[in-house]
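Rotation project, supervised by the postdoc (A.L.). Task for the rotation student: set up a whole-complex structure prediction and record inputs and outputs verbatim in this book. Inputs entered:
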Amino acid sequence: MTDFAATKAMFNLPEGVLYLDGNSLGPLPKSAGDRVQTMMRDEWGELLITGWNKAGWMGMPTGLGDRIGRLIGAEAGSVVVGDTLSIKVYQAVASALELNPDRKVVLSDNGNFPSDLYMADGLLRSLGPDYELRVVDPKTVADHITEDIAVLMLTEVDYRTGRMHDMKALTELAHANGVVTVWDLAHSAGAIPVDLAGCNADFAVGCTYKYLNGGPGAPAFIYVAPRLAANVRPALSGWLGHESPFAFDLDYRPGTGIERMRVGTPPVIQMAALSSAMDIWDMADMADVRAKSIGLTELFIDRVEATCPELKLASPRNPVQRGSQISFRFEEGYAAMQALIARGVIGDFRAPDIMRFGFTPLYIDEKDVMQAADTLTNIMNNKLWDTPEYKIRQRVT
Amino acid sequence: MTDFAATKAMFNLPEGVLYLDGNSLGPLPKSAGDRVQTMMRDEWGELLITGWNKAGWMGMPTGLGDRIGRLIGAEAGSVVVGDTLSIKVYQAVASALELNPDRKVVLSDNGNFPSDLYMADGLLRSLGPDYELRVVDPKTVADHITEDIAVLMLTEVDYRTGRMHDMKALTELAHANGVVTVWDLAHSAGAIPVDLAGCNADFAVGCTYKYLNGGPGAPAFIYVAPRLAANVRPALSGWLGHESPFAFDLDYRPGTGIERMRVGTPPVIQMAALSSAMDIWDMADMADVRAKSIGLTELFIDRVEATCPELKLASPRNPVQRGSQISFRFEEGYAAMQALIARGVIGDFRAPDIMRFGFTPLYIDEKDVMQAADTLTNIMNNKLWDTPEYKIRQRVT
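Outputs recorded:
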């Protein structure tokens, strides 16, 4: 049984803040600052270039990959860390297309995270006018899995509403139609139990700065099914994916298994921070995390719906159909979220009208949820959002 | 006049070590550990998601880009930091090809860093059989710049020998033949004065963990000439290169100027370390760095050649034709480098027979160079390399 009091104690949670935005950027593990400081002083500072071997930097991408792999049902040696999620989406889709050379269509849905669509669109444009990115409504994805589709590229959990696709059923349907699958786990890894091996998934990608708490700009990860890895010709064929990077051959030969999905020099300092976060994740069982997550989200919905009739639930009501976040629609949602943030309850807003709250059992408990719901009720019932200060939208960039 | 005693005092240089491998991984700036610790504790820890605005994380890629830009003769607002160098090579070459749609050949040379060739080859393979990566001898590049070439992709300073291409002359010749240029500055930025604007360069890329001292896995940078930026359709079109990333539109619209070359979420912790290194670089004038670098390399060549006849200079003898490193060929170079490292002189070995020494004026001075030369002389004259222990080659991965 996961000891959630112990995991909560391992995070830095600012006084007076209820943080329901761990699905955007997870909080700081208390050990991460010292871990990074020590790595910089003792490894970079003293070992210098020899740190790549002596401090094991070179093995970190696969070592961290295996620790993430446990949370997403991946086989050992099938996940590697590196780059950003956008880059890993590109790499996965381009590599998947090469496995299906006679087909030209990538199928996705309009609930996918925009950067996934941008990256795929850019890739397909470069491949020529025969290629097509087909974007359909999430509800109709199954109907569009046909024998002209090369790659099915979906984000399992919708970033706005938390709505979940059925990974197992859609992957089965895809395979029955000769389609290669790419699953984006940005809102799945650390949020819900994922069973990549059990679903027979082909490629998967995700980020580590949300539920996994790796810190701002933490690297992404990529999964390739072991049955495919030896046949994948990796797109973005960089030197650290080469069979023998330090031979400096002029010709590329892909490395063994998942190693071939590495590209350039991995971000060692970011990986040191991520390893602190994974120390906490190593204490967690995803079944426990899921059970607690459902309890927290049900509690939040119940209390908010009972007291705030203006807020309309945008997430699926059935907990098995959603991830670990709850979203409500409200026309003045931007202002209401500013009012919440001003009172120490941090969620976020997604245009045009979505107020989004992430529930992260490692450091959020029932008391937090009740307090957040009470603050929201106070704001809604007393129209505390209705001030000019909260209504002026700030550009984020 | 750059105060090199002051810059040297700002680096952590381990006792008993003479570090001539700053061209692989620069040493730790003394301020970097605290800077990163503070960023993690006060910004990530306390500001959480609001750090993107309140701590200015979102602006770091262009802010650091401008500081690097000063060292490479780039216009303000023409450099952005992110990803790895391999990814930036891909992005630059793919974007350059789009500017020259009627041509199918990328010209490079066999002195280029292998990952650049791997990335370009992977890109061209994906574009189809009409595309060609033409790899020629570095001496003959000018002869091969013809009107069928779309993109000229060169590393300015050879990673093994330090031999330099003439960026200005080759760019002029390229433009006269309608060729778009991509310059890799991995061994140039912080090593020699670069004048991208004065050379009329089109694209340039580089890394920040070598001469720039950004730390292991520090991010790369990319330059696009301002006259081109508005017309570049960026390959790797990620959300942070979008005109309005937080509108979450389904369609990609490139951002203004260099912003469009951003891809995914930038590595904030790595960038904090890099900013410490750039504080030191802000104190340096590249003309002073170059003058001192030439003095140090000339001194090293003179002393080694006078005492070690077995070592054959692999770098150009004329200092204006080389970067800030010196390489010698020696059949037992691997063992000799191990003998040097065992005695605290850190250089590196590049197959098959190159002993490579980087000279980094910010923290290496004449006394260091004389001492390194004396140690090498002792090893060579007494055949101290000739022990089984040094001859067993260790795999670096």
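Student's summary: The mean pLDDT of chain A is 96.
Supervisor addendum: The domain at 32-281 of chain A is CATH 3.40.640.10 (Aspartate Aminotransferase; domain 2).
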